[in-house]
Design a protein that fits this description.
Order of helices and strands: HHEEEEEEEEEEEEEEE
Number of helices: 2
Shape: globular
Bound molecules: calcium ion
Strand content: 25-35%
Distance between the termini: 51 Å
CATH architecture of the largest domain: Sandwich
Number of strands: 15
Radius of gyration: 21 Å
Number of domains: 2
Oligomer: single chain
Length: about 290
C-alpha cells in the first residue's frame, strides 16, 4: 500500500516536474539566441510591457510633435525610442505627408494622402531603416509589440475593378510571401494583425468595428504562443476603453531574408524601400507609431 502510494506520488511528482521543465524550456526556446540567459523567469502576457521597460529592448517611437518644416510636409520624424534607425518619407506621384491636430488637440499627427484608386495617384509612406549593421527592427524570437494611433477616413479603399487601393496598411515589415512579415492593417474598418515567421503565420482581427474619423490606438502583440490585437477608443468623457482579441499559434523567428527590409508606416514598401501605387495607402491621420521588442 505504502509502496503503491509512494510510487503514485513519485509518478505525480515526476509528471509535475516534467511539465514544469517543458514549460520553462519552451519559454527559453522562444528566447533562444537573443542573450545568454541569466536568471530568466516565465512572465505572463500581462507583464510583457513592464518587462520590456525593465530590459530595454530596441524601441522605435515616432512622436509627431513638430509641425512639418518643409513646405508644409514632413520629410522625417524623430525617433524617441532606443533603436538606431533612419526615418524618411518615400512618395510617388507627388504624394506628401502633412500635419493635422493630434487626438485631443495640442500637438500634431501625420495626415496621409486621401483615397485615390488610380495607378497615377499620389502616395506617401514613412520608411524606417536600420542606421547601423544591427537589425533593430527584427524581434527574432522575442515578444514584441507594434502599433499606432490613427483615424481612418470614411472612404479609404475600393475593390472595384481598376482600383489599386483596396486596403489600409498602418504598419508593416515584409510582404505576404516573405519569410518574415509583421503587419497591422485596417481593411473594411477592422484592425487586424498578421505575423509570419519561421514557424508559420497567424492572423487576428479585432472585434471592434471602427468608425470613420475617430481616434483609435491599435497594438499588435506577439508572444511565443499567440498574437493579440488590442484596440483602444476613448469615450466622450475621455475615458479609454480597450478590447483585446487573441489567437493562439506559433510564429517563431522573425529574421527576414535581409536586414535592409524597411519598416513602413502608412502603407507597404518593397524590399528596396520603394513605394508602389498599390501600396494599400493608409488614408487618415497617424500618431505615435511604436515598435517595442522585449
Ligand atoms: Ca503627436
Ligand atoms: Ca487606402
Amino acid at each position: 500500500m505504502f509502496t503503491k502510494l509512494s510510487s503514485g506520488l513519485a509518478r505525480a511528482l515526476f509528471v509535475s516536474i516534467a511539465s514544469a521543465t517543458a514549460a520553462v524550456s519552451l519559454a527559453c526556446s522562444s528566447d533562444a539566441g537573443v542573450e545568454p540567459s541569466t536568471s530568466r523567469s516565465v512572465e505572463s502576457a500581462a507583464d510583457a510591457d513592464s518587462v520590456q521597460a525593465r530590459r530595454g529592448g530596441p524601441e522605435v517611437a515616432l512622436r509627431v510633435t513638430e509641425a512639418p518644416p518643409f513646405n508644409g510636409h514632413y520629410r522625417t520624424f524623430d525617433n524617441s525610442g532606443t533603436a538606431a534607425v533612419r526615418v524618411s518619407v518615400v512618395s510617388l506621384n507627388g504624394g506628401v505627408l502633412t500635419a493635422r491636430a493630434q487626438r485631443g488637440g495640442g500637438g500634431h499627427s501625420i495626415r496621409t494622402p486621401r483615397f485615390n484608386p488610380n495607378t497615377g495617384a499620389p502616395r506617401a509612406v514613412v520608411k524606417i531603416l536600420n542606421a547601423t549593421a544591427t537589425d533593430a527592427l527584427n524581434p527574432r524570437t522575442n515578444p514584441f509589440t507594434f502599433g499606432a494611433d490613427f483615424t481612418l477616413d470614411g472612404l479609404s479603399s475600393s475593390t472595384a475593378r481598376g482600383s489599386v487601393d483596396n486596403g489600409d496598411n498602418l504598419m508593416q515589415r515584409g510582404l505576404f510571401n516573405d519569410s518574415s512579415q509583421y503587419k497591422l492593417e485596417l481593411d473594411d474598418n477592422v484592425a487586424a494583425c498578421r505575423i509570419g515567421g519561421a514557424q508559420g503565420a497567424v492572423e487576428v482581427s479585432s472585434s471592434v468595428r471602427m468608425q470613420a474619423d475617430r481616434w483609435y490606438r491599435a497594438r499588435c502583440k506577439r508572444l511565443s504562443g499567440s498574437i493579440s490585437i488590442s484596440v483602444t477608443f476613448w469615450r466622450a468623457n475621455g475615458s479609454a476603453h480597450t478590447v483585446t482579441d487573441t489567437r493562439a499559434g506559433r510564429t517563431g523567428d522573425m529574421t527576414p531574408d535581409r536586414a535592409s527590409w524597411p519598416l513602413s508606416v502608412g502603407g507597404k514598401l518593397e524590399a528596396a524601400g520603394a513605394v508602389s501605387s498599390a501600396t494599400d495607402q493608409f488614408n487618415g491621420r497617424i500618431d505615435n507609431a511604436i515598435l517595442r521588442i522585449r
